[in-house]
Each structure stands twice: as C-alpha cells, then as structure tokens.
Specification:
The complex is a heterodimer.
Chain A (H helix, E strand, L loop, with lengths): L8 H7 L11 H4 L2 E7 L4 E6 L9 H14 L3 E6 L12 H10 L1 E2 L32 E5 L7 E6 L5 E5 L3
Helix pairs in contact in A: 1-3
Chain B lengths: L47 H19 L8 H28 L6 H6 L10 H4 L5 H22 L5 H29 L3 H14 L11 H8 L10 H14 L23 H15 L6
The chains are: A alpha/beta, B mainly alpha.
Chain lengths: 169, 293
C-alpha cells in the first residue's frame, strides 16, 4: 500500500517532494503520498495525499508544491485529501526511517497495540527509544509534544543531548 | 504558501477539506473526503444536526485550548495544548464541509466557524467554559478526551463513510490527548499536598458540565437509529471507567454526582462565556467579510 507507482517522470518528481516540516524525508517515504494517477493523454494527474494528523498545517503547502511540480512537467494536478484509512507510521519506508535517524530524529517504533477498550495504563515512560546520536537506550521523554504534531521531545541520559522522536501512531 | 508558487494554477490545497459545491471559487471537481463526491449532489441527510454537535465540540474546545499558548505553566505545555487544539480543529474541519453538503445550506467550513451566532452552535457547555487554572484544564481534558475516545471508537463503525473516516483518524489523536491529560492528573494528584488539593477541587468544578455529554437528545437518537451515530448515554459507563482508573492512580477521588447539571448546549442555549468566546474567535472574520491573505 505504501509503494507509489513512479514509472513516469512526473510521478517520480512528485514522490521526491520533501515534507515541509521535516525536509529530510520525502512525502513518499513519509507515507502521506497515497497515489499518483497519470493521464498521459490529457496531461492531467490525480494525486491523493493523507494527513499525518487531522490538523496538520503542512497539507496546504504540500498540495501547492504538488501542483507546482506537476506544472513544471506540463501537467495539471488535482490534489485530493483522503482521511481513510488513517495514516500510520507503519507506512514510512526504511529509507525514510534512515533519513530521519541521520538527521537526529529517532524514527517511529512499533505502533502501540492493545489499546482498545480498557482504561489507559498510566506510567511516565513506556517505551524504549534509542538516542539517534549515541545509540543509548537510556532516554527519557521530556515533552509529550514536540516542535510538530508528529514528534515528541526526549533526552539521552548518556550523551545528555535532547532529540526529537517521531511518534508511532 | 510555498515560494515556488508564483501564481495559483488552481485553487490549491485550501480546498483540500472543502467539497466542490461548498467552495465558492471551485470550478473543477475535487473530492476531499471519502465519500464526499457522492454526497454533493444535493443529497440532504437528516443527521446534519448530530454531526454539527460533534464538530462544534471540537471547534470550541480548540479555541479554548488555544488560549493556553504563552499562558501554560511551561513552554512544553504551550506546545502540547496548542497541538491538541490543532488536532481538534482538524477534526472539526473534517466535518464542517460535509455537514454543509448534507444540510442543504452548502456552507463552507469558514461559514460554520466564523459566521454563526451563539444560538446556532450545538456544542456542550463543558468546552465553552473559561479555562480556569491548569488543573481545571486537565480535569476537562481528561473527561473530554475519554469521551472522545469512546465516541470515535463507536463512530468508526458508522454507516456513513465520511463519519467513519473522520472518526478513524481522530481516534488515534484523542488517545494521545487522553494519555497526556492522564499523565498530568496523576502527576498533580499524586504530587504535593497543594497540587493534590487543587486537582481534586478541579475534578469537583468540572462535574456539573459532564452530564450533557451523555444526554440522548433528538438529533443523537435519530442518528443512532440510522446507524450513523451512537447514543451518548451508551458511552457513559466506559468513559467513567477510563476516568476512574486515572483518578484512582492519582490518589484522587471521583466526586459524587453534582446537584445541578448544566444543560442546553445541544439546542443552542449556551452559558455566559460562549458569547465572549465567539466574539474573540469571529471578530476579524466578521469585521472584514471575505478577507484573504
């Protein structure tokens, strides 16, 4: 489901568009580019994207950039936003995870499972996140929400550096 | 806007949540939500009022939470409450254009948010109350997110694809909000003597505003009957169980049921703070109709 057909040059160009808030990762590697349908006859595109979070403020910039890239290649793009199925960090590619890690952002881990009907378990730190700088797993969450909706803030207890964690959802 | 865009080719992403007919300048068809295309052909549906209540709860609470920016006890909490507000705003935006397509008015999301008077809002009184202190906000967020987790879990099975799609997306977000509120309630409740007392007092102050969340009004009975919505009363026990677990962990106690209960939001009768909230939220849009930037 993650893979987007990139046979054509225009689809490839669109898949390489960087995320405006985390520019080290492309919208394809982030998993928010769901499909690119190319009509070579009419030179039109239907591009489907999905937001990471309902209120993601980057969606408008991303759609504008898609329209621009398509126009550069001589296509008119119709950008559609799809909410269902909802985006999950499981759609992020391995290349995307590596890019985040190189940039100093801990890539998302396993999506938490089992949270369905029971009350929420309350503990202060529940999952292990490795420091993207020194690799230590002795890290602490210092803020539940980071610089963007998709990140939390952590600190490494070994190298003492703070870092962003891409939250698994 | 991106600096790469020198001139708008089409109306771009602003329309990403706007069904074609609701967007004044949209000349080309643009599907924005799952199922939206089928629902723009004048298909009026009887449950718009039910969805409006859900969207208005999120919109008004987003506005209240936004007030914490630069006012929270620490900068991380500015970010947290701002992010939660953004999620709620996005959830409301997911519903407003769709409501406009099924209630026959063709209103846009901005029309709903910025052009309606107090009596046309269907949100519960809980979300319009002034923000109080930080413990008050955490008490409200705990209850409201627990309610939203149960609501969106149930709406995931809605017979309306748009409603199910918005709920499926929202569920992931509101779980995290609940988690955030839970951590704070435990930290404050199981903290110092003062923080414990103030968190307990906040749980008592929020109590009169909870019953309304679980009232089966006419609109919800209708929507539930169609399989689109759920009966609010049916969510009550699961929500209380979630909150009670957190409150217990926090060494606090759930207060006894309140003697008075705030009511009327779902029929447009609001409490005193609502008018002030709307004045602040709508002032610019109403002073400069149609302004863009």
């Amino acid at each position: 489901m993650t893979a987007v057909a990139v046979e054509s040059a225009v689809a490839r160009a669109i898949s390489h568009i960087p995320d405006p808030e985390v520019p080290v990762i492309s919208i394809a590697d982030l998993g928010i580019l769901r499909s690119v349908e190319v009509d070579e006859e009419a030179h039109t595109l239907v591009v489907t994207i999905t937001p990471t979070y309902s209120g993601c403020p980057a969606m408008e910039a991303i759609a504008s950039r898609i329209v621009f890239e398509a126009r550069q290649q001589g296509y008119a793009a119709d950008v559609r936003t799809l909410l269902s199925p909802p985006w999950t960090t499981d759609w992020m590619t391995d290349e995307g995870r590596d890019a985040l890690h190189r940039f100093g952002i801990a890539p998302p881990g396993q999506v938490p499972v089992g949270e369905t009907h029971g009350p929420v378990a309350v503990t202060l730190s529940r999952h292990v996140v490795a420091c993207p700088r020194c690799g230590s797993t002795d890290t602490t969450e210092i803020a539940h929400f980071g610089s963007t909706a998709c990140k939390a803030l952590r600190r490494c207890n070994d190298c003492l550096e703070p870092f962003d964690e891409f939250k698994a959802i | 806007m991106s600096e790469h865009v020198t001139e708008p080719v089409t109306e771009p992403a602003v329309g990403s949540f706007t069904p074609p007919a609701a967007s004044a300048s949209a000349s080309e068809p643009r599907e924005s939500l799952p199922g939206a295309a089928e629902n723009t052909g004048g298909g009026e549906k009887p449950y718009a009022a039910y969805l409006l209540g859900i969207a208005d709860d999120s919109m008004v609470y987003a506005q209240r939470l936004g007030e914490w920016m630069t006012n929270a006890p620490q900068i991380e909490e500015d970010m947290a409450l701002g992010n939660i507000a953004l999620d709620l705003l996005g959830q409301a935006r997911g519903l407003y254009p769709y409501i406009g397509s099924i209630d026959g008015t063709r209103r846009s999301e901005d029309d709903y948010a910025m052009q309606r008077d107090e009596r046309e809002w269907r949100n519960v009184h809980l979300v319009e109350q002034e923000r109080g202190d930080f413990a008050d906000e955490m008490a409200r967020l705990l209850w409201f997110s627990a309610y939203q987790v149960e609501l969106h879990t149930a709406l995931g099975a809605s017979t309306d694809d748009v409603v199910a799609g918005v709920a499926g997306k929202a569920l992931k977000e509101v779980r995290y909000h609940l988690d955030h509120a839970s951590l704070w309630v435990v930290r404050l409740g199981d903290g110092t003597e003062e923080s414990h007392q103030r968190m307990q007092a906040a749980l008592e102050r929020v109590l009169p505003y909870l019953a309304e969340l679980f009232d089966d009004d006419e609109a919800s009975v209708l929507a539930a009957g169609l399989g689109v919505g759920v009966l609010p009363s049916g969510l009550h026990d699961a929500v209380v169980a979630r909150v009670a677990a957190v409150v217990g962990e926090a060494t606090l106690s759930l207060p006894d049921d309140s003697r008075w209960r705030s009511r009327g939001g779902r029929s447009g009768v609001h409490s005193r703070p609502m008018g002030y909230l709307l004045a602040e939220m709508q002032h610019i849009a109403r002073s400069h109709p149609g302004a863009t930037w």
